[in-house]
Amino acid sequence: MINSKYFFKGLSCIKKFDSPAIALGTCFIAIGSLLKNLGFNIQESVFSTLLTYALPGSLVMAESLLVGASLINIFLAVWLVNARLYPMTVSLMPLLMHKSQPRWKYYLSCHFIAVSAWLIMKNNYETVNKKNRIDFWIGIGTATWCVAIIGTIIGFLASDYMNKNMMIGLAIVNPVYFSCMMAGSMKNIQISLSIVLGAILGPLFFFISPEWSILYGGFIAGTFAFFIGELNVK
Amino acid sequence: MSSSIVFAILVTSLATYLSRFLGVISSEKIKETSKWFRWFNCLAYSTLAALIARSIIFPAGALSEADYSLRIVVVISSILIFYFTKRNLVYPTVFSAIILALLNGYFA
By the CB < 8 Å criterion, does A53 face chain B? Predict the structure, then answer.
């Protein structure tokens, strides 16, 4: 069903020196303690990470609960901030699709699509032949998912012992890690331009619409970079 | 309170899974050598970059209590460390957490 050799190869990516475990762990520690302060119990906190497994979504949920937003509002706010998962899925899954593999693997394992696992897969997919990539991906996803859950539990339990400055220090790890990962993935002009323009336009559009800024900024930056890149290839 | 938390979690996870699920449906029809695929690749990197930049400049949660200029300085110096240490990810991340916690304690 799942080729264990490739599954464990994916799973072991968490031990490498460029492992996402530290960054992922720290940001979910922050989420765990945030949820505790919001009045979640430990089961609810773990349940939240287990089912959502996308950090910005959990943050939006936490903020919405604080201001007492309705369920419809929570749904829309989370959907908007996590809509980036759609282009991420479309730019990953075609690399993993193989006709010999059952479809349910793709529909279940898409739950693992989040920045950390996605970037590892994008940087390493060429090392695995196409037929076994989905099993490799399930391994990476399982590893990062487990780190997120353990991080949430640690954060929940440790929240009483952390002061404000420690929380702020933890919260910067995730953006720093991903900024470095993105800087490391600038391999061609299309991707480099997408990243640089996205990083400029995303915050700029925040002044026009905070909810839509990521989608507007990302869409314009990505489309522009795509056309510039296509012109340069020819 | 408790039941509303459970509903909020369920709604959040549904809203999140929806984009992933629709992504897999679209992927069935897109070849990895096509222009569509390259376009979505650009969109994925640019929306990610937009999200990360936004979370540094307009953060939510604990990070918003740190001063704006402190955050920018820490992120830029961490990226420089990343390049100087031949793309090691452990040094910049550990550095950023310690230095921001210390600086924030010092200036606050």
Answer: yes
